[in-house]
Amino acid sequence: MKIEGSILTPDGWRAGEIHLGATIEAIEGAPTDAPRAPHILPGFVDLHNHGGGGADMMEGEQALRRAVRTHARHGTTALAATSVTAPDAQTEAFLDAVAAVMQRPEPQGARVLGAHLEGPFINPGKLGAQPPHARDPDIAQIEAWAARARVIIMTFAPEIDADGALMDALDRLGIKAQMGHSLCDHACARAGFARGAGATHLFNAMSGISHRGNGLAGAALAHADWAEIIPDLIHVEAGAILAARRAIPNLYGVTDATAGAGMPDGTYHLGGQTVTRAQGAMRLPDGTLAGSALVMDRALRNLVSIGLPLAEASRRLSTLPADWIGAADCGRLRPGARADLAIFDGELALIRTVIGGAEIG
C-alpha cells in the first residue's frame, strides 16, 4: 500500500509517500515546514480505556472486541484495556478476556497491548467513579494476575503501600506504576515519582494542588516526568492542561473512555454501575464524572484547539504513551515500525485508519 500526503516522522514533517506492508517499508519525500492535508499521523496509543461502542470491557471478550472496533474507527491503533476496581473473580474474567483478544486479535480493531489495572489497591476515600471494592495491596494477587494476562500498567494509591512492597513487585514484574485514586501528601507522592511512577488522569481523583497542604497533583507538577491526562476539556480545563504541559515533560493524553464513547446520549454500564452520557460527559446518578465519552480523534482536535501544534498534539497521543510502556514498534512513523496510521483532512476530520497495514472499514 502507498499513501501520499504530509507524513509526520520522528524528524518532522515530510511531503511525499509512505509505503506499507504489515510494517512501514519506506518513507519518501522532502522535509517541509508547511504540511498540507492529508496529514498522515501515527495511530493513537490509548493507555487508559474502559470501553466504547456501548460495550464495557469488564463484560468479557465480546464486549472488549466491540470496544476496540469502535476506537479503531476513531484513529486508535493500540490500547491498554482498563479494568475497574472489582471483586477478584471479575478481575480474573477481565484478564481472561484481555488474554483471549491478544492471542486472537480483532481484525478490525485496535491492537490490545495488555491490561491496565485501575485498582483495586486504591484509597477508598478517593474512589471517584470506581466501584467500592478498594483494598490493601496483595503481592501474591498481583503476581497471579500478571501470570493470567499481560499487565502493563497498575494504578494504585501510594499511601496504602507504605513499605513500598507493591512498587517493588510492579518493578519486578515489568508493570508500570501509576499513582491515582489517592489522598497522599506531597512527600509520599514525591517519593513515588522519584522511583519512576507516573500519574493516572492527572488532577482527577487525587489530592490536589494548593499553596498549603499540597498533594499528588501538586507533586506531579513539581516532580513527575510522566503523567496521563484526559483532554476532553471536561475533566480538566484548557488552562490546567497547558500548565501541566509546561511542567511535566512527558505528559500524554488518554481517553478514559467508557461504554458511551462513540455512542449517542443514553444509559450505559461501567463495571456494573449505571452511567449516563449527556452533554459530552459520562456521569453516575449523583453527577460524579465516570470515565469519559472521549475518542482519540476528538482528543487531537481538542489539543489543537487550545494551542498545541498538530505535531505536538499527535506526539502526546501516540509517541509518548508508546514510549512510557516501552513499545518502540508503535506510536511513530519510521521504517520498520508497525504500519499503524491515522490520516486526517485539513479540518482534522479522520479520513482513514490503518492497523498493521490493513485499512479499517
Describe this structure in words.
This protein is of the alpha/beta class and 361 residues long. It has one domain (42-329): TIM Barrel. 27% of the residues lie in helices and 29% in strands. The protein is built from 10 helices and 21 strands. The protein has helices at residues 61-72, 88-103, 139-148, 165-173, 186-194, 216-223, 238-247, 296-305, 310-317, 319-324; strands spanning 2-9, 12-20, 24-31, 39-42, 44-49, 51-52, 55-56, 76-82, 111-118, 151-156, 176-179, 198-199, 226-229, 250-253, 266-270, 273-278, 281-283, 289-292, 341-344, 350-355, 358-359. The strands form 5 sheets. It has a 7-stranded mixed beta sheet, with helices on one face. The chain has a 6-stranded parallel beta sheet with strand order 5-8-9-10-11-12. A 4-stranded antiparallel beta sheet has the order 15-16-17-18, with no helix packed on it. Strand 15 and strand 16 form a beta hairpin. Helix 1 packs across helix 2, helix 5 (186-194) crosses helix 6 and helix 8 (296-305) packs antiparallel against helix 9 (310-317). The longest helix is centred in the first third of the chain and has 16 residues, at 88-103. The protein is globular, with a radius of gyration of 19 Å. The model has no long low-confidence stretch (mean pLDDT 97). Residues 40-346 form the Amidohydrolase-related domain. This is N-acetylglucosamine-6-phosphate deacetylase. Substrate binds at residues 129, 204-205, 212, 235, 289-291.
